[in-house]
Amino acid sequence: MKYTANDFVEKNVETLSTELKSLLPASQIDEIREIFMPAPSISKAPVAAVTPGRRGGNIRGISVASQFKTSLQELMSDLEKTTPHYIRCVKPNLIKQANSLDSGEVLRQLRYAGMMEAIRIRRQGYANREFHESFYNRFSILLTGKERANSLGIEYLVKTLSNRLTLTDGDWQIGHSKIFLRHELAIKLETFEMLKVRMAGRVLTRFGRKIARRRAALLLTAWGKMRLHFIRKFYEKKACAKIMATYRMYKQELVYATTKNSIIRIQTFVRWKLAVTRVQKKRDPYGEYTFKDMEKIVKGKQKLLEKAVAQKKFGYAAELETTL
User: Which residues contact 154 (CB under 8 A, 6 or more apart)?
Assistant: First the structure.
């Protein structure tokens, strides 16, 4: 159960019982009777309380006892006008040092103050009490969705949980503003609430993991598709570049082969023509000359022949004659 400080001052108001208030003014002790007498409004000016028959009272003035009595009466009058509160304090240690807790000393103080017995007695009764709204907001999660939709308030919640947990009216009671329940029942309800919250947390965790896996699967699928698309585009681009390179290579090879064949044919034709010319020259050295050229050559050789005969070069003349 959570500890709260709400209405802490109102819960710890220390008021005197009626018997004590009527007993103290009738005490046989004069001081107590005068202290607890319902005093009228007391003036702040000191009053000289001199006992009759005592000599020298006026000379000595107000005695210390009279001043103490007046001050005490004023204090009691002020206390009657206030609402005193009782707050029990526990010393954490005997050395009066901060950040130091002596558990044994604290336990002894609680035992000497009767807190353990008070707790035991309170646990035997309705130890836990909570406002209706707070109790309904905490434990309405134990109802199903249909029951929560048909819920009519705290009475319906108590009735439903009593039937479900096999409880009696003695385990809890509904007051005007609070609900009272035993300590064991409070622990049981808090346990069920914790289990319900954990179960809801597990459901939300599974749902979140399912959504995360689905989103991860969609993301991986999209990433895989994008990856395959880029790979396909890469291979398509690579294949296109290779086809273009092959086509350009084939085109250049075709041009080269055509040029080579043309050159070979031209060379063949030129060589053929040269060979034919040589053969013709060998067969007919004067075949390319015209009649006038031949006539000039013949006349020139005749002159050379005549000159060689005149000079008696008969061998040379014989060669010239064979050519003619």
Answer: 132, 135, 136, 174, 179
- Residue 304 belongs to a domain: yes
Distance CA(96)–CA(287), nearest Å, equals 149
d(CA 100, CA 91): 10
Domain that holds residue 294: 289-323
- pLDDT tens digits along 234-247: 999 999 999 999 99
Residue 99 falls inside a structural domain: no
Count of domains for the chain:
1
Regarding pTM above 0.85, the answer is no
Task: Tell me which amino acid residue 172 is.
Answer: W
